[in-house]
Each structure stands twice: as C-alpha cells, then as structure tokens.
Write a structure and sequence with these properties.
By secondary structure, this protein is of the alpha/beta class. The protein has 9 helices and 10 strands.
C-alpha cells in the first residue's frame, strides 16, 4: 500500500528542523513518498482560479513561504534513507529543460535513486506574466520539454530538435544513475493524454466519480494509441487523511494515495497505524 504526503514543503515544513522531523516520521511510519509544490512567484490579487478547491484560492495562502522544491527535497534527502522524493508538481514551462534535467539528475544521484519528477503545465496565468513566459502555449511546451529532458538524461552526447527546444551535441552531467520516473499532474483531458503518451505516472489530484473515470479512460486510450502499456502507468490520487477515504481511492483505481501534510507528526503515526503501514 503506497501512501504519500502532499504539500510537504509548505506550512510549518518550511522550517529546516520541522521538515526533517516530518520527513523522518513519514519514513518511520510507513509512508512511501513526499510530494512538494511549486510557485516561483505569486502575484498579489491574482484572478486565475485555483483548480483544486471550491474557493479557487490556494489552501496555504497567497503570501505563504513556498521553498524551491529541488532544494527542499535535497535537504531532506540527506536526513532520510528510503522515502521517495517527488515534485508534485514542478511547473515545467517556467523552467528551461536543461536546468530541469540537471537538477533532477543531481537529486537522483545524491538521494540514491529516490527522485520522481512530477510535472504540470501550470494554472496561475499571472505567475507566467510576471516571469515573462507565454501562458497560452504552455501545454505544447510542456510536452516538448519532456522530450528534451529525457534526451539529456538518456543520451551520452545529447541532441534534440523539438518545436520549442533545440540543442546539439551537448554533455549534461551527471546523468541519472537510474531512470527518473515522470509523473504527469493535472485534472484536464490534455493532462490525461500527456500521461498516456509520455508519462510513467498520472496524478489527477482529488477528482472523483465520473470525472475520474473519464480522465483514466483518456489516459489509457492515449497510451494504447501511442503503443504503450496503460497498466504500466502508475496512478496516484489525492484523498483526505482518513482511512475510509484512502481505501475508497484505492478501490477507484489508485496505485498510490497522497494525503496532505497538515496532519503533523502525531497525525502521521496515528494514520500509519490505522492503515497498518507503520
């Protein structure tokens, strides 16, 4: 039973000692992974609706500390031994593929092969504007970036000629010592198609019922159309930190269920014991 912790780098966990205590407790109590969120900047008064709650605003506040996910994960990697370390998600169009490849490969090396790259195309249009990055073509650039990153990871001397990103005969070292899974986040049909065509995993958040069935069906059909095995694509679903809710998500087709970090260290122990993973 794989249970992960979402929003791992937010709230009290922005403090180094709290982050380490939480990460070590999650590892000790049987949780399999830590998932970090990312916003480089959050513009004051943004109007883009946050897609993962009914209020349309981020749960942790517009002015909350959100540490860089790669730096935060590297810090807790040095103080843990087994737990998987994941971005959940990093906003791919806001990062150059070569920098993303370099960060991911370095973290995979330093963590002993525990890194998972969770990706998304982004929802906060005002953030893109503040960083002078095009918003309308973010989906196509995300797809292209996946190809560029994999070329840098997999080729000894890497070349890539895509729609948005191109390079020829470059070294990007270190190369990952083991393959880095790419988990596609998002609750849209485009994200489901991306997961089927390009992803090693799919994380559609906390969608439920018929909408979840529609997304999983699109993912599977897209994988088959691309000549890939849909059963090899790991599905992660969000849930409340409640044993019944978690069991429902596994019954709905999840390979991993991810709960928010707000329950604290004591809550991790209680939930781990209730689920029989501690």
């Amino acid at each position: 039973m794989k249970i992960g912790i979402a929003f791992a780098n937010t709230m009290a966990n922005v403090q180094p000692e709290v982050a380490v205590e939480m990460a070590q407790a999650a590892e000790a109590y049987g949780f399999d992974s830590l998932w970090t969120v990312e916003h480089i900047v959050v513009p004051v008064g943004y109007e883009s609706p946050y897609p993962y709650n009914r209020r349309g605003r981020m749960d942790y506040g517009d002015d909350a500390d959100i540490p860089d996910p790669f730096v935060w994960l590297a810090y807790v990697a040095a103080r843990t031994a087994r737990i998987t370390l994941a971005t959940g998600v990093t906003v791919v169009p806001l990062r150059r593929p070569a920098i993303l490849a370099k960060q991911g490969a370095t973290l995979q090396l330093m963590s002993g092969g525990r890194f998972v790259l969770g990706i998304g195309s982004g929802w906060l249009e005002e953030e893109f504007a503040a960083l002078d990055v095009s918003f309308d073509d973010r989906g196509a650039r995300t797809d292209d970036a996946i190809g560029a990153v994999r070329a840098l990871w997999e080729q000894d001397v890497a070349s890539y000629d895509g729609e948005f990103y191109r390079f020829e005969n470059v070294y990007c070292r270190p190369r990952p010592p083991s393959p880095i899974p790419i988990v596609v986040g998002g609750h849209s049909l485009r994200a489901a198609r991306r997961a089927g065509e390009l992803g090693d995993g799919f994380f559609p958040g906390r969608v439920i019922g018929g909408e979840l069935e529609r997304l999983l069906d699109r993912m599977r059909r897209s994988a088959e159309a691309a000549g890939r095995d849909p059963d090899a694509i790991e599905v992660s679903l969000g849930a409340r930190p409640d044993p019944a809710a978690i069991e429902q998500r596994f019954a709905a087709g999840a390979d991993r269920v991810i709960v928010p970090a707000l329950i604290g260290v004591d809550g991790l122990e209680i939930l781990g014991r209730a689920l029989g993973i501690a």
